[in-house]
Design goal:
alpha+beta; Nuclear Transport Factor 2, Chain: A; 6-stranded mixed β-sheet
């Protein structure tokens, strides 16, 4: 006699603790919105996605766990981020004329658990970014970790870490955000 293998569609799905914090669709939509802002050159709006103490970090070595005791490709607190964003619009920023264009592709979005201190949610994703300027194209691949606080759709970024696959390779200037 065959057992009934049909799924009980009336049963409530069991959520992991991480999924109870935010759904993958909710955080995925937020990450896609962030990518759109960067690709459209809306850097001021992108900077507003961060909390007042939000940080942005691109380590210079694989497995780097501390931005304060090691060299980083990029480490920005709110002040440094504001300076860099203003520079994008400055008429004397010749290295940004013409402004580079970018395309961010986000995939493999996962809610992995609560954020540091139990606040918010920790999200991991994969990124491929194309950057183009003056007949030169760069391609970057990275593992990205976001510590998001707040609730969908109004998440804010407490910390963003971009671990480039080739972080320890020789590379030209990194003009745009990942």
């Amino acid at each position: 006699m065959k057992e009934n293998c049909a799924m009980d569609r009336t049963a409530e799905p069991t959520l992991t603790p991480a999924q109870a914090l935010a759904s993958r669709d909710e955080v995925g939509d937020f990450l896609l919105h962030e990518a759109d802002l960067l690709d459209e050159g809306r850097f001021e709006e992108w900077a507003e996605l961060f909390t007042e103490d939000g940080t942005y970090w691109v380590p210079a070595a694989p497995g780097q766990s501390d931005p304060h005791h090691h060299v980083s490709l990029i480490w920005e607190d709110p002040l440094l981020r504001a300076v860099r964003v203003r520079r994008f619009r400055h008429p004397n920023a010749y290295s940004l004329q013409p402004m580079p264009r970018s395309l961010h592709i986000i995939s493999n979005v996962r809610v992995v658990g609560p954020g540091e201190g139990g606040e918010g949610v920790l999200v991991r994703s994969r990124l491929v970014m194309f950057q183009y300027r003056r007949d030169h194209q760069d391609i970057f691949g990275a593992r990205v970790t976001h510590h998001l606080v707040g609730r969908a759709p109004d998440f804010r970024i407490r910390h963003k870490k971009v671990e480039l696959v080739n972080c320890d390779a020789a590379m030209g200037p990194i003009q745009l955000y990942f």
